[in-house]
Amino acid sequence: EAEVAQSPRYKITEKSQAVAFWCDPISGHATLYWYRQILGQGPELLVQFQDESVVDDSQLPKDRFSAERLKGVDSTLKIQPAELGDSAMYLCASSLSLAGFIEQFFGPGTRLTVL
Amino acid sequence: SQKIEQNSEALNIQEGKTATLTCNYTNYSPAYLQWYRQDPGRGPVFLLLIRENEKEKRKERLKVTFDTTLKQSLFHITASQPADSATYLCALDAGNQFYFGTGTSLTVIP
Fold it and tell me: Please, what's the b/e burial string for B39-78 (b: 16 or more CB within 10 A of its CB; e: otherwise)?
């Protein structure tokens, strides 16, 4: 069964360093999402792509976070510089399209710890 | 902004009983609402979707209701099993944004 791949699974970094996360969605899925999930809370949408275009990034802290999906397939989320408050699980999800009623398939996530 | 509230406390029930989880929302009228299951350290897994014009949806031991007047969805697991223990998240669309609730932790006691 096709799955969303993410790497790394775990990342420990010191504050002020740069980190990057990678996501490979299910083949054929046009829509890709990045979420941040703090322990004990629900996922919070950071950015969503339709193919290579950003559809919504209103919740992305643009002073330090950036996301790209250059060829409309895999995607990278970067944080520079990392802050202590960025410690969280970063989840990537994909769906067939942006149209409503479409379920999202999530990857295993990247657990980030900022020291 | 959209606000979604789920049972704030963890829910513990005896095996075989029916678990009922609540999702309340404000400030928007979503076209649909979804329920996901999340196990510790893993990404959420889609369970059910219910549209605004549907009152009830069933899938095996799962049942979801959607009351757009009350702005509430109820999620039921009948004949619960220890394997149902997990966190359950509701999620809805609000225009071109997607919001998750904080989740309810369910423990089914053998």
Answer: eeeebbebbbbbeeeeeebeeeebbbbbeeeebbbbbbbe
Calpha distance B7→B10 (Å, rounded): 7
Q: Which of B9, B88, B96 to mutate to test the interface with A (most CBs of A within 10 A)?
A: B96
Beta bridge mates, A7: A22
Cβ of residue B93 closer than 8 Å to a chain A Cβ: yes
A contacts of B25 (beta carbons < 8 Å): none
Pick left, alpha or beta for residue B71 (phi over 0 → left; psi -120 to 50 → alpha; otherwise beta). Answer: left
Enumerate residues 60 to 89 of chain B having a beta carbon within 8 A of any beta carbon in chain A: 89
* Inter-CA distances, B60 with A53, B76, B84, B105, Å: 38, 11, 13, 21
Per-residue pLDDT of chain B (110 residues; tens, 9 = 90+): 568 889 878 999 999 999 999 999 987 788 889 999 999 999 999 999 999 899 899 999 999 999 989 999 999 999 999 999 999 999 988 776 788 999 999 999 99
Residue identified by tokens 């904080």 is B102
